[in-house]
């Protein structure tokens, strides 16, 4: 049984541990994590685990032959995500009115409006947004219908609150 005492060590073992779970191949399944972040970030203390599909654990023995085709395709797609991120960041940096529109919509809790504003820049990537009073996190992924090979997350701060002195 997993406990949540030691966040970093336990997160991996708890997420991978599925009691009694079996894959069609008979191997114990595990989850492939794209990234795990546990920190005091602008989004608070939280574990952000980007999980992709489960893959069966490889049996002991020789590894399969190396084929970098998918790895290279993922890198190419990630470059597209980075270009889209550069477009968004450039507009936010150079247009105070655009930045104010994004902040205003976020402050009013209008997630779809924030997404619409980001998409209005002509980016093709799927964009997920999360915001709080401190900042915004944009997660860019390949467009719908594309192979989900990679993600690019960007966190931007827009406010710094002074510690409360009571």
Write up what this structure looks like.
The chain is built from 4 helices and 7 strands, in the order αββββαααβββ. With 166 residues, the chain is an alpha+beta fold. The radius of gyration is 20 Å and the shape is elongated. Residues 1-52 have low confidence and may be disordered.
Using brief descriptors, characterize the structure shown.
two-stranded antiparallel ribbon; 3-stranded antiparallel β-sheet; elongated; 4 helices; 166 residues; single chain; alpha+beta; 34% helix
Average pLDDT figure: 74
**Outline type:** elongated
* SS class: alpha+beta
Through-space gap between termini: 42 Å
The biggest beta sheet is recorded as:
3 strands, antiparallel
Radius of gyration: 20 Å
Range of helix content: 25-40%
Q: N-to-C SSE series? A: HEEEEHHHEEE
Assembly context of the chains: single chain
Strand arrangement within the widest β-sheet reads 5-6-7
- Percent of residues in beta strands? 15-25%
List the uncertain runs. 1-52
Give the strand tally: 7
Q: Quick summary of this structure?
A:
This protein is of the alpha+beta class and 166 residues long. It is built from four helices and seven strands; from the N terminus they run H-E-E-E-E-H-H-H-E-E-E.
């Amino acid at each position: 049984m997993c406990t949540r005492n030691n966040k970093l060590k336990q997160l991996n073992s708890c997420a991978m541990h599925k009691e009694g779970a079996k894959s069609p191949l008979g191997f114990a399944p595990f989850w492939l994590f794209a990234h795990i972040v546990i920190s005091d970030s602008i989004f608070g203390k939280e574990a952000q685990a980007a999980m992709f599909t489960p893959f069966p654990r490889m049996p002991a023995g020789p590894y399969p032959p190396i084929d970098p085709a998918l790895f290279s395709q993922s890198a190419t797609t990630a470059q597209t995500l980075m270009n889209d991120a550069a477009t968004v960041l450039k507009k936010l940096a150079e247009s105070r009115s655009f930045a104010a529109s994004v902040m205003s919509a976020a402050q009013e809790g209008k997630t779809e409006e924030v997404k619409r504003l980001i998409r209005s820049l002509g980016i093709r990537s799927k964009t997920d947004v999360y915001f709080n009073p401190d900042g915004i996190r944009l997660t860019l992924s390949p467009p719908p219908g594309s192979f989900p090979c990679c993600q690019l997350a960007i966190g931007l701060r827009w406010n710094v609150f002074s510690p409360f002195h009571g």
